[in-house]
Amino acid sequence: MIQLSTGDMLRAAVKAGTPVGLKVKAVMEAGELVSDAIVSALIGERLDGDAAHGAIFDGYPRTQAQAESLDLLLRERGRSLDHVIELSVDEDALVERITGRFTCAVCGTGYHDRFKLPVVSGVCDVCGSTEFKRRPDDNAETVRTRMSEYRAKTAPILPYYEARGLVKRIDGMADIEIVAAGIAAILDG
Ligand SMILES: [Zn+2]
Fold first, then answer.
1. Ligand 1 centroid to residue 101 C-alpha, Å
2. What's the pLDDT tens digit per position in 91-135?
3. How far apart are the first and last CA of the chain?
4. 118 CA to middle of ligand 1, Å?
5. ∠113-114-115 over CA atoms, to 5°?
6. Residue 99 Cα, ligand 1 centroid: separation in angstroms?
7. pTM of this prediction?
């Protein structure tokens, strides 16, 4: 399956110069927020293209309105959601995980200050690069703001999916391997 993260999708569409990408570029250059309509169009493009055989939506939908437009996009293509996976994690633990994460600037491999440092300090395990980067919004204050947005706007869409029996909960506090196995079991089930 293709992983569809809206941030990555916006950047990819701009780079690819698709019709929607050109619109996104104009909006971003004007310093405005990309509208739900544009995000939907972008997802539609991918569902008709490389994600025709399955997709994992990452960071989307974030609001009830987006959940409804996703349903519409899928319905128009005779498709539907199989699962909605909720990773439940203690909020303080989440802040620690997010503020400590960084990635290799060359190959994108993920690392963490406390949980997953490169084997050789300052050198990427995978590609040997010595350049790393951090997302500027991965600081504690911004993370707390994102969480209160999640509680206010995103968590309320869970009942929408629960009513359809789609929500599966995974204990996100468990080790990575256990979390991954839990998700695999849901997808295989
Ligand atoms: Zn690397």
1. 14
2. 898 899 899 999 999 999 999 999 999 999 999 999 999 999 998
3. 16
4. 10
5. 110
6. 20
7. 0.75
